[in-house]
Automatic annotation (TrEMBL):
Presence of keyword Cytoplasm: no
Entry GO MF terms: oxidoreductase activity
Protein name: SDR family oxidoreductase
Keywords (A to Z) from UniProt: Oxidoreductase
A Gene Ontology cellular-component term: membrane
Family (UniProt): Belongs to the short-chain dehydrogenases/reductases (SDR) family.
Domain of life of the native organism: Bacteria
InterPro entries (alphabetical): NAD(P)-bd_dom_sf, SDR_fam
Length: 239
């Protein structure tokens, strides 16, 4: 009898911001599909615990996406450990929310440096390895990348910019066999902005839903690219 293997057997993935929430569930799904996975976070205890929880060929690495040198070292170590790179999931992000008058320079800088510059640094570090055997880049954006809201100056700007970067990446990389998809969720039950998921979040998109979407996109025919995916709760509470 022929032994069945998962679609990710012999492949590897690198996921940023993966100690909890969407990043953790995406990494868990990829590992379950057979991928060797590196996950990153700024907190050593959290990322080590997440790697143990996922199991399999999962490496937990402390890395701040605002540091391009640290990211390059982490990606290089991943390639050295697993022989290449097939999936890059750009997930690390944060938010500070205030009207522009009250938003501090430090808050603006942290959001832009993490959500936009950090995404650029992550992709920049991974492109050479992805080009060697083709692959897939996912950028975790938001519906806030097309729908501005009061108090969202820094966050909206970072996600609008991330969407633009993602679209350019598609044009720059598709002839190298690299797909790029920007995933734009609405309300997700995560730990974002200090929130702790609870039973009242049942109506929201769940992190495992984004993980399932990621696997579905990876299973698409090579000839087809869903380049922008907007994801909404199917039945939000009535206002």
């Amino acid at each position: 009898m022929t032994q069945q293997t998962g679609p990710g057997e012999g492949k590897s993935a690198f996921v940023t911001g993966a100690s909890k929430g969407i990043g953790l569930e995406v990494a868990r799904a990829l590992a379950g599909a057979g991928y060797a996975v590196t996950i990153t976070s700024r907190k050593q205890d959290e990322i080590e615990a997440a790697a143990r929880e996922i199991g399999g060929q999962t490496r937990g690495v402390v890395c701040d996406v605002r540091d391009p040198q640290a990211l390059q070292q982490a990606v290089d170590a991943h390639v050295g450990a697993f022989g290449g790179l097939d999936v890059l999931f750009v997930n690390a992000g944060l938010g500070h929310f205030a009207n522009v008058e009250d938003l501090t320079l430090e808050q603006w800088q942290e959001v832009i440096d993490t959500n936009l510059s950090g995404a650029f640094y992550t992709v920049k570090a991974g492109i050479p390895a992805l080009k060697r055997r083709g692959g897939y880049i996912f950028t975790l954006s938001s519906l806030a990348g097309k729908n501005p809201f009061a108090g969202g100056g820094a966050y909206n700007a970072s996600k609008f910019g991330l969407n633009g970067l993602s679209e350019v990446l598609t044009l720059d990389l598709r002839q190298h066999g690299i797909k790029v998809t920007q995933i734009m969720p609405g309300s997700v039950a995560t730990y974002f902005n200090g929130h702790t998921p609870n039973e009242q979040d049942a109506w929201k998109i769940q992190p495992e839903d984004i993980a399932q979407l990621t696997l579905d996109l990876l299973a698409m025919p090579e000839r087809t690219l869903p380049s922008r995916i907007e994801v909404r709760p199917s039945r939000p509470p009535q206002k």
